[in-house]
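forwarding from the other thread:

> can someone predict this with zinc ion?

sure thing
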Amino acid sequence: MPIKIMPRKEPPLLKTLPRLIARLPKDSPHIKKLEQRLYRVRAGYSGELEIDQYIATLEVPTSMTVLTDIQLSHSPGMTFQIDTLILTEKFILIIDVKNITDKLRFKTNPNQLEQESKTGEVRRMDCPLEQLHTHIHNLQNWLAKSKFQVDIIGRVLLSNPNAHVIEAPPNAPIIYKKGLPVLLRNQSRKPTIHNPKLIKRIEELIRKNRIDYDPFPLCNYFSIDSDSLKRGQLCTKCGETMQYVNHKQRRCIECGITAPNNYRETLIDYFTLINNSISNRECRDFLQLKNKDAANYAMKSLPLNKTGNSVATRYVWPKNFLL
Ligand SMILES: [Zn+2]
């Protein structure tokens, strides 16, 4: 039966976190934490992509719609996110893909996941089982507000074959990747409980209301003082600020290389890291330009939206265009 999978968007942190790290001074206490975050974002995304591709190859006896990366709001300012949601006439399933390795102990009282590496180092994290229950609860409540009373099941899926569950509560909804086809087949054998029209309406409702995950600007999001960031265009070789030579190029005093002025990249860094709008003065300061005209010229490298007049003029970043 047909499987329809919504293409998964690349997490916005994947490209922008390396830019934040590059602009922090080398001795910044934030770097280590941000690098760990980037590692987790990258691993998470690749695990989810792998499972999407795997699902696409499966033979299942019921048609399935797979929605990916759904973020919904359950009250003003409060959102919840579901990585993978499978909608069928027989069942509705949330899959929380965890691309983690090593020995895993799902502890209770308090709920926590312990990951023990080969060297015996133990890392503790939020319990994926508890997160899964919260996701199910949130989605069920969210759908109930639109008069959809449905049962939702969920599984934590360990996508990495080097993950070994050593300890978990009895009947914990955890599966390995190879268990997914069995689960889908077993669930598909159950009687039809949802009218196809209802499933379609749920899909449309979710698609219509999903919001984009927006962590920008990152300095606010990670509570980092934006004044501590390196300004100007960064050298692609050593990462230091390059000096303005003329309107065509910049030069790095540290390693001597020259590069064309890259206003676009430097401005995108400003918008994603510091503020979603910029004034002519802020542009001159951040891009290290000599005068107003040079800043106006630089800002033309992006299709920015102008707001305000004369000294209050600001240029606003059209997010969707860039990410
Ligand atoms: Zn350099």
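Residues 235, 237-238, 240, 252, 254-255, 257 surround zinc ion (CB under 6 Å). thats all i got for now
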